[in-house]
Amino acid sequence: RIKNFSTSHDPQLVSMYYQFGRYLLISSSQPGGQPANLQGIWNESTNPAWDSKYTININTEMNYWPAEKCNLTELHEPLIQMVKELSETGTQTAREMHGAKGWVTHHNTDIWRISGVVDGAFWGMWPMGGAWLSQHLWEKYLYSGDLNYLESVYPVLKS
């Protein structure tokens, strides 16, 4: 089916992929848990690819693109919580590494919410993780219109 998709009309395949995307987020992100990452909770390796970290230069964000759009807003909570926690560790990183106010996080983080430069210098010195992740805080507000929620995340967005 996939091979023939470009030359055929197959809306059921599109629907199946949409539902599969929902399934992936449902199965990997639940309120009160950790956010979805590239390796997932089923990784059997003691030395997984990318150390099973959260790669926040696009991969983690992509996992959550469907959250609001697919009416899975409660599944956004683990990522929103991680961003709040990163804003705390990232405040120290911004001050110590960059002599800056606000907060920063780089290419990767993990369950301890590291926010400094990690791994190779070519990609590890990428300081835009916080800005990219903050888009999810804003998008959640745009979908909900919840002013109490916005008030709770505004300090993170502002800094």
Automatic annotation (TrEMBL):
Which Pfam family, any one, appears in the UniProt record? Answer: Glyco_hydro_95_cat
Q: Which UniProt keywords apply?
A: Hydrolase
Keyword Hydrolase annotated: yes
Q: Which InterPro entries match?
A: 6-hairpin_glycosidase_sf, 6hp_glycosidase-like_sf, GH95_cat
SUPFAM superfamilies noted in UniProt = Six-hairpin glycosidases (SSF48208)
Q: Which residues form the Glycosyl hydrolase family 95 catalytic domain?
A: 1-158
Output the Gene Ontology terms for molecular function: alpha-L-fucosidase activity
Question: From its record, what is one biological process in GO terms?
Answer: carbohydrate metabolic process
Gene3D superfamilies the UniProt entry points to: 1.50.10.10
Q: Give the top-rank taxon of the lineage listed in the UniProt record for this protein.
A: Bacteria
The UniProt entry, under PANTHER family, shows:
ALPHA-L-FUCOSIDASE 2
Listed name of the protein:
Glycoside hydrolase family 95 protein
- Species, as recorded: Gaoshiqia sediminis
